[in-house]
Automatic annotation (TrEMBL):
Keyword Transcription: no
InterPro entries the record matches: CmlA_N (IPR041141), Metallo-B-lactamas (IPR001279), RibonucZ/Hydroxyglut_hydro (IPR036866)
Pfam families membership: CmlA_N (PF18456), Lactamase_B_2 (PF12706)
Residues in Diiron non-heme beta-hydroxylase N-terminal domain copies: 7-236
GO cellular-component term (any): cytoplasm
Gene3D superfamilies reported for this sequence: Ribonuclease Z/Hydroxyacylglutathione hydrolase-like
One Gene Ontology molecular-function label: hydrolase activity
Annotated keywords: Hydrolase
Name of the protein: MBL fold metallo-hydrolase
Domain Metallo-beta-lactamase: 268-422
């Protein structure tokens, strides 16, 4: 039965895991994964093992979903304990790295502007040869991490990577970032690294029939999971995507910051987060609506709702080129997105800089500075993408926060006439600790934590962008409201949430100026002729 040509069912999902925790970019780079393992995962597991009731009780309150609580019943305490012990046992080097990073920070803090040469001998042993010590022009010492070298060290542990496959028959999925997967949670938990070709062979079967038996062999599916694996396949062919044959640009909103732009010659997809397909009243585009080959995937930044490994791994085999912003090697908060993708099996990963232009068939891509939304940390790996196609021009600005409107003034001439602005307006983001806490060796005072939130643009700031770029149409996107994002974004806004109030206000501003504006939800299609 497994050797007949079959398709992958349209509701099959993959969860990429690191030490059994759902993966995002900080858990792939060997420069940052040890910090999250030591200061987040192990701490959460210690807390659960000591007081599982506290976690269970906290999660009774929906407002605490997404908080630092493990979503397993008390009965799983021994499994969590076993994972905690195994993680500690198998990752002693990662724990040592975390300590070395904090020791190095202290060492650099003691330097007073004199030559850094004598400090090389004092760099913690495991970091020696992986860092260059430098001063900025105000004589503050810093270290440049040679991340490509770290990827070649034992700190990059592919053995800690695994995948779990499952069918998703509805939008309801539990929040993933604070709860490890445990043995027995899924029969199809496979010990393969993310770059494994079996993942491509499997997801190619979404559109091209293949042999489940062959893929099972590639992925090393154990005999005990054969039935569960067979259940992922069907003989029924999926819906065929409807190609665009017009002379303009067809723009389809797939949810959140994911937008597909197609001309007759080329397809461009931003920040892929795609719904699985199952019977539902809430109509949306799914994997079945994607072209068989996606020529360009554009990533705006590393946040897990924009660089979502779960979706990217499924698309890897059909992506031509993937464009990412360049990172800043002097900041541990800013691992290279190119390396994250290259080391996990993506080909043709291209970095784009601010104002760099990349020609594509029938148009071009340009990197536009994306400021803010990263707690004032020196994160460079973020970009807005100006997409020019068939004489049209669309700016995908993601979570840009117009902290300094004059930047947009400087861009006015360069951007030129703009047909559509896509802007996220999560004007009240999480506190700094929620995203970046585990990167910090020093304690984070509450006042600092609260003042440096991950805020996107509010109405006043969005209006400043409007003033300078003067788009013909505005779309407020990346609001995290689609139900298929619930496992990565717990927040559901009602009309009293600042994100809704501010975006409604901005829609009114646009309309007052005769600019069409909307906040798409679930799906939307526009054709720019
Ligand atoms: Fe973001
Ligand atoms: Fe976002």
């Amino acid at each position: 039965m497994l050797d007949r040509p079959m398709y992958l069912k349209p509701d099959v999902a993959i969860e990429p895991l690191f030490n059994q925790w759902y993966v995002w970019w900080y858990l792939i780079s060997p420069a940052t994964a040890p910090l999250f393992m030591s200061r987040l995962h192990l701490k959460l597991m210690q807390s659960f093992v000591a007081n599982p009731d506290v976690h269970v009780a906290a999660l009774q309150n929906p407002a605490l979903m997404g908080g630092p609580f493990i979503n397993h019943p008390v009965s799983r305490v021994n499994d969590v304990k076993a994972l905690m012990e195994r993680t500690t046992r198998e990752n002693a080097d990662m724990l040592a790295y975390t300590k070395a990073v904090s020791d190095l920070e202290q060492l650099l803090a003691s330097s007073k502007g004199e030559s850094l040469e004598p400090l090389y001998a004092k760099v913690p042993d495991m970091l020696r040869g992986y860092v260059e010590l430098t001063y900025d022009l105000a004589h503050r010492a810093n270290a440049r991490i040679m991340e490509p070298l770290l990827y070649r060290s034992s700190l990059y542990k592919e053995s800690a990577q695994s995948i779990s496959l499952m069918r998703v028959t509805g939008d309801a999925r539990k929040y993933v970032f604070s709860t490890p997967r445990l043995e027995g949670d899924s029969p199809l938990w496979l010990q393969v690294p993310f770059r494994h070709e079996g993942i491509d062979a499997l997801f190619r079967m979404r559109h091209t029939p293949g042999s489940p038996g062959q893929v099972a062999e590639m992925l090393g599916v154990p005999a005990s999971a054969a039935d569960a694996f067979a259940d992922l396949f069907t003989e029924t062919a999926p819906r065929k995507p409807e190609p665009y044959t017009g002379s303009g640009v067809r723009v389809r909103y797939f949810g959140h910051a994911c937008v597909l732009m197609e001309t007759r010659e080329v397809s461009v997809l931003t920040d892929p987060v795609i719904s699985y397909e199952f019977p539902t009243e809430q109509r949306r585009f799914t994997h079945a609506d994607l072209p068989e080959k996606i020529d360009y995937v554009l990533i705006t930044h590393g946040h897990a709702d924009h660089l979502m490994m779960e979706t990217l791994l499924q698309l890897r085999h059909r992506i031509g080129t993937i464009v990412v912003p360049r990172a800043n090697a002097y900041s541990l908060a800013d691992p290279s997105l190119r390396l994250v993708l290259e080391r996990t099996g993506f080909r043709n990963v291209v970095e784009i800089d601010d104002l760099q232009e990349i020609p594509i068939p029938g148009g071009s891509l340009m990197g536009i500075p994306f400021i803010g939304e990263h707690s004032d940390l020196a994160v460079q790996a973020k970009t807005a993408h100006l997409v020019r196609l068939a004489g049209r021009s669309l700016l995908m600005a993601a979570d840009s926060n117009a902290l300094e409107p004059r930047m947009y003034q400087h861009l006015t001439q360069l951007v030129g006439p703009l047909d559509a602005l896509y802007l996220g307006m999560e004007c009240e983001g999480g506190p700094m600790s929620w995203m970046y806490g585990p990167l910090l060796s020093q304690p984070l005072p509450r006042k600092m934590d609260q003042s440096r939130r991950l805020n996107g643009s509010d109405s006043a700031r969005a209006t400043e962008i409007l003033n300078h770029l003067n788009p013909k149409e505005v779309f407020i996107y990346a609001m995290g409201q689609e139900p298929w994002l619930r496992h990565v974004m717990v927040l559901q806004y009602d009309e009293t949430a600042p994100q809704m109030i501010e975006s409604n206000k901005f829609i009114d501003v646009c309309k007052g100026r005769g600019i069409a504006a909307a906040r798409p939800f679930l799906s939307m299609e526009r054709v720019l002729e």
